[in-house]
Amino acid sequence: MGIYSSSISVFIGVGGYQYIKNSVKNLVEDKMTVPALIKATEETITKKMPEFVENKFKSLEEKSDKLSEYIETTRGEIREKQSSLESVQELLKEQLNIQQSVAEAKIGNRGKYEELKKIPETKPEYKKYVDEALRDIEFYFDALMQQIKAPKMKDNISFEDPGFSVEEVINEYRNSKVESDMRESAIITLIDLYSQGKVKENVVQELCESVDVEQNLRVTARTMLLLFNITKKPFRRSLEIDEVRGWWELNKNETKYQSPYKQYFKFLEYFYTLGFNKDNIEQVTGLLDETIKLEPNALHARCLRGYMMIVLGKYDKAEEEFKEVEVRYRDFRWLLLYRSLLFACKNEMVKAVNLLNQALAKSPSIKAQAKTCAEIFPKYKEVTENENVKWPGDKQ
Length: 396
Fold this sequence. Notes:
- The chain has 396 residues and is mainly alpha-helical.
- It has helices at 2-29, 34-106, 110-122, 127-145, 166-175, 182-195, 204-213, 217-231, 241-251, 262-274, 281-294, 299-311, 315-328, 333-345, 349-362, 367-376, 378-384.
- It contains 17 helices and no strands.
- The radius of gyration is 45 Å and the shape is elongated.
């Protein structure tokens, strides 16, 4: 009741007042007497005002219903547009993620490449985008695979090629750190050595094993090229990792593909980290024997075996080994260094100094091993302290 009265008051105060005023004006114009005018006014208020109020409420209710309907419709449209916007945002986010993965894959990140391949498994709606991205990556590395010109391995001081043996390069290729770019330089060097006829089928095991675990796609692409050149098998695409894995599983027992360098790698562990002594030196040297037996052209392995003979005091055996290397590569830097050591131990100092200078000219960074030899052999310390030795950086 209070609400209704309040509502009437509102309408009388606003629209109702104007309605009554007009009605009274009409009555006055009809020249009614005052009593009749009062009576007519009361009848207007009593009989017609409720109808007026009801019509006003009805109009308001209709507007209110239309407003509610409009609000609800608008809310629905907003929800729909918001949902659409969220879908677009998710799509853009995933597309950006795909683009970033492509960029990282192109600089060699195999992890990002593998992540891309797995996206359709959980988000099939992005398959077409992923397929395009993978094609982009694969075309990029297919082109890269054919680009032979790239930095090869170099001396750390002169930045020139000192002449590497195959086993040295493979050791760098298989064992350099993940964050290093040395593995790509190593595979490029192997490709170059292959073009010179120095790389044989017996490197295939090392290449196949590397492809399976290699995390740098740039290295993988180069390796694919070398594998194709050596085996003539259909490894024509740059990232056919699964194909190589399957092929190697079927061919790993082929003797011609098996690596002769495994024992050489084990020797290097002793030589550079584990150390050797009079109790294990024969056994350690035997590791080199196995590699040289399988690959007589393993030049670094031969030089190291000659060095072991010097350690054992078997100078004639050392010279025999060095002559075998000389036939294959007369100015091989390790041959020059260890022959210098041999001459020092035989007290032929002039020859020792001359050969050390030749070794340093060929590969300035070999000075580190020369210094190590001087620590082990007192006679060689005399050589390294000789004023005629031309160390890298000395003023000429």
